[in-house]
Amino acid sequence: MSKKTLNAENLAALGAQTLADLLIEVSTGSAEIKRRLRLELSHNLGPGELARDVRKRLASIRRSTSFVGWRRRKALIKDLATQSEMITDKIAPEAPDVAFDLLWEFIDLAPSVYERVDDSRGDVGDVFRAALAQLEEIAPRAGLNPQTLAARVWDAQRDNAYGAFDGIIGLMAPTLGAAGLEQLKHLVQAHAQTPVEEPEGHAAIQFLRDLRSSGGNYAAEQKSRLIKQSLQEIAAAEGDTDAYVAQYSAAELTRPHIAAEVAELHLSEGRAEAGLAVLTGADLSQRREDDLRWDTAYIACLLGMERLEEAQTHRWSVFCATLDAGVLRDYLKVLPDFEDVEVEDEAKAHALQFDDMATSLRFFLDWPDLIFAAKLVEDRAEELDGNHYQLLTPAAEALRDRHPRAAVLLWRATIDHVLGEGRTTRYGHAADHLMDCIAADLELTDYGRFPAHADFESYLRTRHKHKSSFWARVP
Questions:
Q1: So which domain of life are we looking at (predicted)?
Q2: What pLDDT, in 10s, does the model give residues 271-293?
Q3: What does pTM read for this prediction?
Q4: DSSP-derived secondary structure for 285-349
């Protein structure tokens, strides 16, 4: 390796004085580098000195009120990450108690930061979430009083509008121990007995909040959700499934996704019958068509009770309704040899006739069976929806080598949709697909019942002759 390569070994060979001079030079005009160098100097004097500097920086960030635009956004994220790393990597190994307090203070900054930066990409939140996860590792070494920690956790749980402390009860449970969790439960139950505090604000805003709430009282619903969530998180930390389930009302237990969650908890404790009872009480009319969680839990409960035949019957009905490849695989696994082949053929025949062609195509790609995928495309070409380009484009790529005619039909559907709807932002993709059709035409000698490429292109040029921005992209 060259002696001029920028790496730690070559730079160390320059000597301390040279490196110090270089750092002074490169830090000139860079507040970020200067701040990092000062932190390293503070760490050299001990964790206490570094903690003082980090605390000063956190106070400065908290006092800031100016909006952080996109130009300064990256620098803010870097600054936040640096402060967090100083706490977890430099201070925590030598002074975990100090590090715990500092890291908690750092996470508590999140609301003030979120209020002045756009975090639609989530990378600001990633810094705070990473810091929150570190609390779990540092807390057991910090010598914390369980009673005091319980109060601290409850304060964070109550004032968590931005979700910065999401999951704090579970993270702190090992450190809280039985005594701390019991104290936390007492604090939650005491809060449940207090009157509802109406939030301050304009009466019109409060009216709109109440209007959106299911019971007509926004503040009461917020409080109820907080209490239920907190008691459930405590129950989960204690491994008390019955206490967790007890927080759901009878009406809530009829919701399929909640019934499935509760059934899964019963299953984890070997109580399949209890899980099945909850599932059968659910109102399946509330279930989303693409949500198979209830079905998965139902099948698992039947299997847990050794009711294989019923589980298989339900698997087949679910497959027939959804074409879910995973469900079919599970169904076939337990069939006798050779019978699984016959059933697989039956399943594919059903998929070919399935009402939603996009679902059928996705199934054959997932299985995978490209022969049937090509057959589906050719048999039902008139049903192709070019707007499903996120499905049709990869499907065409999968089929282009061995089933070019089917691939061409997929490209044609996409092109026709883009031009027909005037989707100018996708003209480049449509032009690429037309070139794919031209390339396939060099090998295709039989278009079957479909127009040859020359006829298709002639149709496009006639119907969309005024789409000049598209044709400019076609060589």
A1: Bacteria
A2: 999 999 999 999 999 988 778 99
A3: 0.78
A4: GGS-TT--HHHHHHHHHHHHTT-HHHHHHHHHHHHHHH--HHHHHHHHHTSPTTHHHHHHHHHHH
The closest of 437, 396, 433 to 417, measured between CA atoms, is 433
Does 368 sit behind a cis peptide bond, omega within 30 degrees of 0 on the bond before it?
A: yes
Residue 466, SS3 per DSSP? coil
**Model confidence at 7: pLDDT above 90:** no
pLDDT digits (tens, 9 = 90+) for 310-325: 999 999 999 999 999 9
Distance CA 398, CA 379 (A): 18
Work out the angle between the directed axes of helices 218-238 and 168-192 (0-180°, nearest 10).
Answer: 130
Check residue 338 and give left, alpha or beta (phi > 0: left; psi -120 to 50: alpha).
left
| 282 to 200, 249, 261, 403, 467: CA distances (angstroms) | 39, 13, 12, 45, 54
Tokens of 356: 């939603």
The residues that bridge with 117 in the sheet, in sequence order, are 68
The CA angle 381-383-389, to the nearest 5 degrees, is: 85
